[in-house]
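Risk register update: the risk that structure generation would not scale has been downgraded. Supporting records follow, first protein first.
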Amino acid sequence: NRNKFFIDLPLTNDPVVFLVNIDSFKEINDFYGETVGDFILVELASFLASLPGVGDSIYRMQADEYAILKPGPMKREEIASFATYLCDKVGNHRFVYRDYEVMLNITVGVADSSTRDAVVDIWDDLLLRADMALKVAKKRHHTYMIYDPSMQVKEEFENNLIWMSKLRSALQESRIICHYQPIVNLTTGKIEKFESLVRMIDDDGQIISPYAFLEVAKRSRLYPQLTQAVVNHAFTLFEKHRYHFSINLSVEDLFTPQIVEFIMEKMRRSPAAPRAIFEIVESEGIVNYEVVSDFITNIKRFGAQVAIDDFGSGYSNFDHLLRLKVDYIKLDGSLIRHIDTDDHSRIIVETILTFAQKLGIATVAEFVHNEAVLQKVKALGVTYGQGYHLGKPMSAQEVQG
């Protein structure tokens, strides 16, 4: 996985990174169902690993993306030949689930150490450059792309370098904080919980939204530190206040031993542990339910709870609710935003609510942004509401009153 990738990368001579992404994976999930999607993720990894020249040099990075790490130096034509080889092999392979044949295509972005930039750590830099090449290949509908400084992505890449530098400094100087958005009980109208939302304090004191730096963090080795900073900030605040509080965790977090061990140590030591709620985001990327289930079982021993975030967006599988024993479903904002006027959204929410109520799972409506939406979700029987109409994110000082 990505942890092993970052261990092996500095040990590889003149490394060349091939970043492999499945084309239209969401459509595969939507058409065939998540069980088939999970099967494809595992089968593709096994197939790639079986190819000559790949073997154990393949790593799962996130969702439907893999990295292949090869030692260099490699000539340009060798890189192009290997990338073409990967695309051709996958495109001509038959992936069969029971009686269904699923055809796959992949796109590959490549970067090698000859394109390093002295501004940042070469290892983070290589992955970012491979990602840049992958994005360009997708945009231009090419099967692969080798990073080249002449690509028309200079502005975006320089922006990534800037934000990586800012993020690294903010982590070193404890300028990663949280703001907290109220979650209101729709029966009593009272605030019962807060969601922890990461923020960066820039070096000029400005509060920066995660949209500026979160994706950069996920592409680097800084992401575990970011998650740890959020956990620290939230636990420190709510050890002093009796509210329940939620913390977002990606599926990638749950497969990162450094993060899981940090959270479990926090749970053992903190009096706030029984009031913690862990929101699993990007849950469609779950392949190994056993790892996620073990995490949930362990935190529940301390009285903590679990939520599935953004439920109802894209392809959502009710199987999550049965297999992961969650306590809350957070209804995606795309369903709630126009629920007062959109019958399609209302019907989907009613279906989810019926299922959740039978399982004893509480529900939270996100993006409650006006009175009409508030009254609608209350009438439907949603348990909790969250959104600017009920309360904007506030600083730790504001939560303390």
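Supporting record for the second protein:
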Amino acid sequence: MKRVIFSSFLGISLLFLAPLIARANVSCQPIYGGGQNCEQTGIVINKTVQNPQNGSYVDNLGVNDPKYSPDQSVNFQIQVTNSGNSPIGQTTVNDIFPQDVNFVSGPGSFNSTTNTLSFEVDNLNVNETRTFTITGQVVSNNNLPQDSGIICVVNQATAVTDNGDQAQDNAQFCIQKQTAPTTTIINQTTTTKGGLTVLPAPKIVATPSTGPEALPLLALLPTGFIGFLIRKKYTAFKS
């Protein structure tokens, strides 16, 4: 529970700090008569995560937004923009994965020790933006923390140019841990309250049917009756 509260607080804080973190360097020149003329220079990076419900890319997904499930794939996008007045020869991008997400695919090389994906962006022209898609996968349900149902994690991306300009941005999303289904076992008692053994239900024995096959038996009744009369008269005559 502590981790969820801390992650949620961190995510809320990043929502307010993200515009400041992702902002490129600002160069300001004094204006004659007072004031300053400021313009952005250098590199800008924007990190987004895909909404698992509608497929759109957003800056952050909070606890009230659609959540990811264990073993589900997560897509990210990193946009690198040159907001300065001159081309940038080379920019190094580092994408740091949270511990509950495994790397699947993306540009550059992945360091499993630091859980970081690194790649280079070469020859970025003025006002040019390049977009990179990165795929991760949520760990299995058993590898998620045992004391929480919802886990909010942060994926961080940084950019450093060959002339020293730096930028950083984060994307938060939440994972809904699956709870194990409960199984109810009904114990069948074999004794009554008094300790007597409960006998199984008796088997039902079907009686023979009395259909047409019983007609021959009925036909023997008149024959038997006639025989009885003959025997009775014979006995009387003999007497």
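The chain is about 20% helix and 40% strand. On this basis the risk owner (M.S.) recommends closing the item.
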